[in-house]
Amino acid sequence: MTYQDMKNALMMVDNPVARLELVMDFGAALPPVPDDAECHEIHGCASFVQICRRGTNFFATADSALVRGVVALIVAMVDGKSPDEIRKMDIWTEFAGLNLNLGAGRLNGVNSMIRFLQNL
After folding, report:
1. What residues are paired with 50 via a beta bridge?
2. Which class for 111: exposed (0-12), middle (13-18), buried (19 or more C-beta within 10 A)?
3. CA distance 20 to 66
4. Which of 11, 35, 52, 83 satisfies CB 3.0 to 4.6 Å to 59 for a cystine?
5. Residue 8 exposure: Cα atoms within 13 Å on the Cβ side
6. What is the per-residue pLDDT across 65-113, written as a single tens digit (0 to 9) for each?
7. Cα(2)–Cα(75) distance, integer angstroms
8. CATH classification at residue 26
9. Is the full-model pTM beyond 0.85?
10. 42 touches 50 (CB < 8 A)
């Protein structure tokens, strides 16, 4: 599923709880990380999170259903883009525009994920 598909699906749901359930569904649909992908643990997340890359394709894992969905959204935003293209993106503004009702701890993790991607 592309980021635009995910965003469109989220925009069709008004209920905040249902939106978070949809985010968890995105995480459940994450493809497995290929054996030859380069993976990095994201520090600053309350959960265990890895963002992995093979060329310009991004993959992720997380040990929490909600965080797995959040990282699925973030890696979908950057999938297929080079590090230079990612640095030019305003990932935080795009993510904030999804209007997900996340707590401060989860938002710290989002910041850590975005910071990692923008420093590739």
Report:
1. 41, 61
2. middle
3. 7
4. 52
5. 5
6. 999 999 999 999 999 999 999 999 999 999 999 999 898 888 999 999 9
7. 10
8. 3.90.1010.10
9. yes
10. yes
